[in-house]
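Here is one chain, start to finish.
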Amino acid sequence: MSAPRGWAPPSARTAGPTGLRRFTRPREPRTETCELCGVAVAEDGHRHLVEIEKRALVCACTACALLFDRPGAATGRYRAVPDRYLHDPGHRLDDGAWDLLQIPVGVAFFFRNAALDRLVALYPSPAGATESELDPATWQTALGGSALAGLLLPDVEALLLRRREGRVDCYLVPIDICYELVGRMRLLWQGFDGGAEARAALEEFFDGVERRAKAVPAEVTT
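Its structure:
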């Protein structure tokens, strides 16, 4: 989810949380545990926290995750990853906006790093989550008109974009599912264009996002 402060040039680095490795391994029967209290948790469906200083995803049981969902908990060491999925039907991005972002592939996600007070742009690649520099003015021009940008919570949520068929779909999603997507693409990627299995997994992933995403309330967009 981040890199050290002494970052390498964008072309030479990939970025991802310590917890990303759980998404890059072939699935096999195993028991996950809460990394705070040690209790066993389901592999699918448990909560994640972001450990702010280490920029890492941490598995958490429901009870521990709820501790960091409370008001005021966002100032501590951990922040709970929310479970909201939103889209803004009234705001559409076109190919011109995508070109401004200078992302070389058709999928990218953006989150605000609170410690650095800037937006971080990442996209999936065979090497993992690759970071792209993003000028604040460019971000504002391309995405700032969306209500989703104003709702984005630092560190724990992302704007997930996909370019296809002449349009760009944009969703506000939990940050952990973005890294899940990165892990799946890294695991399945074959050849120059990813291969049929990776493309099928991408379609399945976005079908799930579309099913869960709710429209931004009208009072937010006005």
